Amino acid sequence: MSRSAAERRPPVPPVPAGGPGALLFVYGTLMFPEVVSALIGRVPPMESAAAPGWRAARLRDRLYPGLVRRVEADEAPAAGRVIVGLDPWDRAVFDAFEGSAYEAAPLVLADGRQADAYCWLDAAEATDEDWDAHTFADGHLGDYVLRCAAWRARLPDPVGAEPDRCAEPDRCEPRFGVSRPVP
User: Fold this and answer.
1) Rounded-to-integer distance, Cα 145 and Cα 63, Å
2) How many structural domains compose the chain?
3) For residue range 74-120, what is the model confidence (pLDDT) as tens digits?
C-alpha cells in the first residue's frame, strides 16, 4: 500500500531555540544568494560572520565543504555568513538539503552571538585543505544552482500546508505554492 504525499512528508520541525529568525551560520554553498534563492525562493538578510575553532574543510570527491573543528584552536576561524530571519519552513528545506551527513548544532560566532550551523559528521572525509569559495564560484556555481533548483522542484513541501501569510492577496507572490507578502 502506498503512502499519501502527506504521510511521506517530514514532520514540521520545532521552532529553533532562538525562535523564528534564529541565526544560521553558513560557510559553503549556502553563502551564495543564488543557491539560497534556488532552495527557498527568497534571499533573507545575510551578514558576514566567522566561527572560531571551526573550519570549512574541503571534502573528498565533493564540490561542497563540511564544517569541522580546527585542530589548532588559534588558527583562523571559519569564514562565512549568518542568515537572519529564517522561519521553520526555510529551515526544513535546508535540513532536507543538507541531509544526514550534517547535523545542525549551535556554535558561538566571533562576535559572541550564538548561531546554528550544519556540522559535517564524517571527519574521515574532510581533507586537510580548507574549501575555497572563489574556486567553487568560478568553476561550479552556475551548474550547482541549476542542480539545487531541480532538487527543490522534486522536494515535497517539507512542512505540509503552511498557513497563508498574506493578508492582502493582491500584494502576494507565490513561493512554492505558498503566498508571501510582496515587500
Assistant:
1) 12
2) 1
3) 789 999 999 999 999 999 999 999 999 999 999 999 999 999 999 99
- Predicted TM-score (pTM) above 0.85: no
The answer to whether residues 67 and 56 touch, using CB atoms and an 8 Å cutoff, is yes
In a domain, 4, yes or no: no
Residue 83 lies in a domain: yes
* Length reported for the chain: 183
**What span, in angstroms and rounded, lies between the C-alpha atoms of 165 and 173?**
11
For residue 161, pLDDT over 50 is answered with no
d(CA 82, CA 62): 23
Among 171, 176, 162, 55, smallest CA distance to 119 is for: 55
Say what the pLDDT of residue 14 is.
43
List, in sequence order, the alpha helices (H) in the chain: 5-8, 33-40, 88-98, 133-139, 141-154
Task: Provide the sign of the torsion angle of the four alpha carbons 107, 108, 113, 119, taken in this order.
Answer: negative
Domain with 37 in it: 16-181
With respect to residue 151, please indicate whether it lies within any of the assigned structural domains: yes
* Cα gap 71→69, rounded to integer Å: 6
Is residue 98 exposed (0-12), middle (13-18) or buried (19+ Cβ within 10 Å)? middle
Q: Is 100 part of a structural domain of the chain?
A: yes
